[in-house]
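HOLO CASE FILE
Compound: zinc ion
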Amino acid sequence: MSKKSDTGEIEKAREILRGAGLRSTPARISVLIALQKGSKPQTHAELSDRLVPLGFDKATVFRNLTDLTDAELVSRTELGDHVWRFEIRDPSHDRSSHPHFVCVDCGVVSCMEGLELPDANQKKTLNIARISEILVKGHCLTCEPL
Ligand SMILES: [Zn+2]
Ligand SMILES: [Zn+2]
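Model generated. Tokens follow.
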């Protein structure tokens, strides 16, 4: 049993929630930890598969994902298949400063740091819109080796 690390994990989750002004409910903590453990963005269905056995229903998981997204702790991506994928936001990672590559097969997101957005720091790149993020879609080399 790794009770010790579990407690630390929960404490950390509480701290993050407190910092965002959210109440630390058991469901919210579990959703946050499940997202932190995922190595890639996860769908509501994938998270439910892990959390329903712990006693949370799918609607609760969804409601908490929405709360975490609204509080900007979690970011939400859609790959064109009408399925939202959720991942922990890294506050030190400015997603608008460089484009991202997202694999439409497995959902892995990679930074394309070498590519700078024009005037990204002004965030008003074009007169037509304020660009928040550029996503480049394709198949990663794990899913489709060259
Ligand atoms: Zn892939
Ligand atoms: Zn990035």
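CASE NOTES: The CA atoms of residues 31 and 61 lie 7 Å apart. The chain has two domains: 3-81, 100-138.
CLOSED: yes
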